Amino acid sequence: MSDGGWVGIVIAVLALAGTAFTARQSRAAQRESARVPTFEAITSRLDSELRAEQVQRRLLTSYVLDLLRWARRVEPDSKAGPPPEPPDDLDLTPWR
Questions:
Q1: Euclidean distance between CA atoms 71 and 64, whole angstroms
Q2: How many angstroms separate the CA atoms of 23 and 30, rounded?
Q3: Separation of CA 42 from chain center
Q4: What is the DSSP track for 20-43?
């Protein structure tokens, strides 16, 4: 075989090895990108958490206002009754 034939074979083997390496790196990058959450996934999760927090803040605010209204009616010698109960949907676990 001539020198030109060997050079061609070496070039073909190197090209094949480079293609296999590139394909392997591409599959690894795809696996990694599948594990890492996308920007859209992160923002949608944050949006849903924000909506849930806003609902809890509204419930908490309404409960605090109910307590303030009740407290205005209470005098040292009056029987205003028990304080109002919190709404059922209000999550009070951070305060217990």
A1: 10
A2: 11
A3: 5
A4: HHHHHHHHHHHHHHHHSPPHHHHH
Predicted local confidence at residue 32, as pLDDT: 67
69 HSE (CA, 13 A, CB side): 8
Predicted TM-score of the model (pTM): 0.50
CA distance linking residue 76 with residue 82, whole number of Å: 14
- Closest among 96, 81, 90 to 63, alpha carbons compared: 90
Q: What is the pLDDT of residues 32-84, one digit of tens each?
A: 666 777 888 889 999 999 999 999 999 998 888 888 888 877 776 677 677 78
Tell me the CA distances in angstroms from 15 to 9, 12, 20, 23, one per residue in order: 10, 5, 9, 12
Are 87 and 93 spatial neighbours (Cβ–Cβ below 8 Å)?
A: no
Q: Is 87:63 a contact under the CB 8 Å cutoff?
A: yes
What is the C-alpha separation between 18 and 33, in angstroms, rounded?
A: 22
**Identity of the amino acid at 12:** A
